[in-house]
Amino acid sequence: MKILVTGSAGHLGEALVRSLREQGHEVAGLDILASPFTAQLGSIADRASVRRAMAGVRWVFHAATLHKPHVGTHQRQAFVDTNITGTLNLLEEAVTGGVEAFVYTSTTSVFGDALIPPAGSPAAWVTEDVRPIPKNIYGVTKAAGEDLCQLFHRNQRLACIILRTSRFFPEADDDEATRSAYADDNMKANEFLFRRVDIEDVVSAHLLAAEQAPALGFRRYIVSATTPFLPEDLAGLRRNAPEVLSRRVPAYEGEYARRGWKMVPAIDRVYVNERARRELGWQPHHDFRSLIERLKAGGDIRSPLARLIGSKGYHAERFAAGPHPVR
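Given the sequence above, the corresponding structure tokens read:
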């Protein structure tokens, strides 16, 4: 089967191309950057490039996007061109070409201001039922892409699955205070509790979504590591996250002490993946509990696939204030 992967030179694009090739599929990788995983150079904002790439394709994995780190370096119009016009081009050509499954890689960033509870309130329990309130052009354009997918399912019966992925990038945090307070692996390990996922699990969710898209029709799913927390923990997480975690995953204390790591004092949101596990049959392998066991055995917090792909960065230039400018 021929499968199109957009953004094939990126983190997720490369991971998808690698995994699909291993399964014996013919993969058409489309990207503006040359790479061993890119079969065609071109922009998704260019309709002719999309049309050429779509020839004979049965599944589409749409991972190409301008990301949050580009907010400080790109004009808003560039986000509209790539994230909205590019998605529209792909959807229209997918319908014309008779594509069977369209999987759109979205982001938990679409939730935006919905993730910030008022002072004194419990942490937010974030499911697919939470109404997004995007807070920057990245979130706005990704939400618009989701709406386009819904429109094409409604009016053209294109099977579309939206996966709202949490953090899986390996780059350093964009917040200077966070970088100063925590070692990089320490902070990423903390995030597996509430807003991070390993790219290996992201890939498995995408493959399951494509397989089941014709039967499901249209769905939105949060793709994040399985949290050990429960709704009754939310008030405590906002006040004293280490205390709550000591009850849920007591083994973490010894390993963190051995490494000189710290847990964040408070957690303000928890991404919940229950619907994806229930409806897709998704079984993520990398969560905070398994990570602690791996660390105790001398392993790495990253999966083999994450280590293989490594860090790609988002910009060709370097910035004095951090991995990318924040706006």
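Residues 2-173+197-227+271-284 form a domain with the Rossmann fold fold (CATH 3.40.50.720). Try to locate this feature in the token string yourself.
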